[in-house]
Amino acid sequence: MGSCFADNIFQKFNYYHFDSLESPFGISFNPLVLANQLNKLKENKIYSALDLDFHRDFYHSFDHHGKFSHPNLEFCLNRINECISKAYKFFLTTDYLIITFGSAHFYRLKETGQIVSNCHKLPQDKFIKSIATTEQIINAWSETIKNIKTLFPDLKIIFSISPVRYLKDGFIENTRSKASLILVVAHLTNMFRHVHYFPAYEIFMDDLRDYRFSKPDRVHPSEEAFEYIWHYFENSFFSDETKNVNSEIASLQLQIGHRPLYPESPSHLNFEKKIEAAKKSIKIKFPQVKFRWD
């Protein structure tokens, strides 16, 4: 759960066929929003029409990313509730929760005081922009973690700070925001034994100190940079056995991703038969992996 960096991590887990699930709320950046989302997930909240806002021909949820918005009310609600229901069931048996904080800045809806995950391009005068204090975030998350721990005593939480800089807030405000988030996570890891920190932000800012590791916007990490950070993640959290499994899966994924010039040629049809045989073989070799090729 969290920023686009959390989504990148999920895509990696998905690529290697981990039994994982992305946030049912979509990408979110602020820790207060994420704590609120997690509490609603824990309650298996069911959204109704009263929870949605209609603007520019679309129904929106202020708790959700824009990808959940839709012109049809019933479709929008069904998708939101189906995703939360699926995530709630998954959450009951999960071992790890990975959270990425993006920014301490947040927006509050003037009319209701609700802290929103996404403004959905509504007029700016409908919102108040603020920056959460370290104390606010620590209080929100310490309470959330305690509540989760009572229900899921074996759950481990891995926090990270997104390496993406939010320069629309300005260089100074972005730095203050990131500093606040780093202090928050340091406090939480000291408070709870089952809470851990992965230094994605520090790796990108201090180890990859060159714009050639950024995308053209000079804000988001490039594919090369993310692969570099992912290598650190593997070495931090994966056993040698898991890394060996990943290596074999990656080798087969590269073959599956091959795009032939002549799909109907005998050589490619024979290649596809070998791929199917390799899939069956790897399923037998690693029965603990829930492969999703079929």
Question: What can you see in these coordinates?
Answer:
The protein is of the alpha/beta class. It has two domains: 4-237, Rossmann fold (3-Layer(aba) Sandwich); 240-294, no CATH class. The protein has helices at residues 4-15, 31-42, 73-91, 134-151, 171-191, 200-207, 223-237, 240-256, 266-285, and strands at residues 52-55, 58-61, 96-101, 105-109, 115-116, 127-131, 156-161, 195-198. The strands form three sheets. Strands 3-7-8 form a three-stranded parallel beta sheet, with helices on both faces. It has a three-stranded antiparallel beta sheet with strand order 5-4-6, with no helix packed on it. The two termini are 27 Å apart. The model has no long low-confidence stretch (mean pLDDT 93).
Task: Give a quick set of tags describing it.
single chain; 294 residues; alpha/beta; Rossmann fold; 2 domains; three-stranded parallel sheet; three-stranded antiparallel sheet; 8 strands; globular
In sequence order, what are the helices and strands, one letter per element?
Answer: HHEEHEEEEHEHEHHHH
CATH topology of the largest domain: Rossmann fold
- What is the gyration radius calculated from CA atoms? 21 Å
* CATH architecture label name of the largest domain: 3-Layer(aba) Sandwich
Described by its quaternary structure, the protein is single chain
**How many β-strand runs?**
8
Major sheet description = 3 strands, parallel
Structural class: alpha/beta
SS field, number of helical segments: 9
End-to-end Cα distance, whole Å, is 27 Å
How many individual domains? Answer: 2
Strand order of the largest sheet: 3-7-8
Low-confidence stretches: none
In round numbers, the mean pLDDT is 93
Question: Which range best describes the helical content: under 10%, 10-25%, 25-40%, 40-55%, 55-70% or over 70%?
Answer: 40-55%
Portion in beta strands: 5-15%
Shape: globular
CATH class categorisation of the largest domain:
Alpha Beta
